[in-house]
Amino acid sequence: MKMKSLDELKKLREKAQETIRLREQEEGTKIVVGMGTCGIAAGAREVMLALVDELQKKNLKDVVVTQTGCAGLCEKEPLVDVIRPGEPKITYGYMTAEKARSMVTSHIVNGQVIGEYVIAREDSGD
Amino acid sequence: MREIALHVLDLVQNSLRAGARLIKVEIVEDTHLDSLVITIKDDGCGMERALLEKVLDPFTTTRTTRKVGLGLPLLKMAAERAAGELSIDSKPGEGTVVTARFQHSHIDRMPLGDMAGSMLTAIISNPAVDVVYRHRVDQRAWEVDTRTIKAEVGEEALTLPVVIQWLKSYLEQGVSYLYGGVVENEIS
């Protein structure tokens, strides 16, 4: 089983390298999910899995999902930051898998921040 | 926390904060011995004896964003509730090993939960760190090592949707095999 699945992975190699080359050419969007004990207990894993699934479905290759620890806003977890080049960092709170999916459509694809879910905005200073 | 798999993800976060480069997650389910043991071993900074002694106190944390650290105390409670225990071994500069044992059949044992989801989350959000996930259920064992994956497609590929999708199916298939699930391909 293992060998066969890894063979499938080998087939993805060229496709992967092509995408990585594309990514290097322009700065993409970064999504950061809070993964402290507080975030995990509040459902951060499901939010993270929904995000990567939605990005795959929408074929959004230049978006990277990563994680961070506790930001001290435990009661508002799961927290999700969206950082787009040249725009203020947007922090969404009380996220769920469904909210994360609609955020991808609205914010990442169409550039419309979902004000109702936002708990903080922060200018990058540049 | 409602699943042991969420505790595992939480422990992986501790290892990351300790600066680990390699995190080994092992789950051993033995129905004959009636035990479920999870072990998370890292090569992070480790803990001095003084911190090790008080790390199970909820009012101990190394972070500065809040004053409580509930991860380990919650897991200890979950293990003890299922006639098990939690142990921590740590050496400064070498790393930390956390082991939690549960009575497998205990009525109060938390379900293991979505291990594939927890491991996928841990792996893709920290592509620079290597993760080994070994899981045994009686006679059936399965493992995944991110070093093997990186050798094939490179580290950065772990952030690509197409590779994440592959890893998701790979993990789900592996876990399903452990519980007697039929896999599409023959076991080689």
Summarize this structure briefly:
With 126 residues, chain A is α+β, with helices and mostly antiparallel strands. Chain A has four helices and five strands, in the order αβααβββαβ.
Q: Keywords, please?
A:
heterodimer, A: 126 residues, alpha+beta, Glutaredoxin, five-stranded mixed β-sheet, 5 strands, 45% helix, B: 188 residues, Heat Shock Protein 90, six-stranded mixed β-sheet, 6 helices, 6 strands, 36% helix
Provide a descriptive summary of the structure in words.
The complex is a heterodimer of chains A (126) and B (188). By secondary structure, chain A is of the alpha+beta class. Chain A has one domain (26-122): Glutaredoxin (3-Layer(aba) Sandwich), CATH 3.40.30.10. Helices cover 45% and strands 20% of the residues of chain A. Chain A contains four helices and five strands, in the order αβααβββαβ. In chain A, a hairpin with a 5-residue loop joins strand 3 (80-83) and strand 4. In chain A, helix 3 crosses helix 4 (97-109). The longest helix of chain A has 24 residues, at 2-25. Chain A is globular. With 188 residues, chain B is of the alpha+beta class. Chain B has a single domain (4-178), classed as Histidine kinase-like ATPase, C-terminal domain (Heat Shock Protein 90, 2-Layer Sandwich). Chain B has six helices and six strands, in the order H-E-E-H-H-E-E-H-E-E-H-H. Chain B has helices spanning 4-17, 49-54, 71-81, 115-124, 146-153, 161-178; strands at residues 22-30, 35-42, 85-91, 95-103, 130-137, 140-145. Chain B has a six-stranded mixed sheet. In chain B, a hairpin with a 2-residue loop joins strand 5 and strand 6 (140-145). The longest helix of chain B has 18 residues, at 161-178. Chain B starts with a helix and ends in a 10-residue tail after the last helix. The model of chain B has no long low-confidence stretch (mean pLDDT 90). The interface between A and B is large, with 42 and 47 residues.
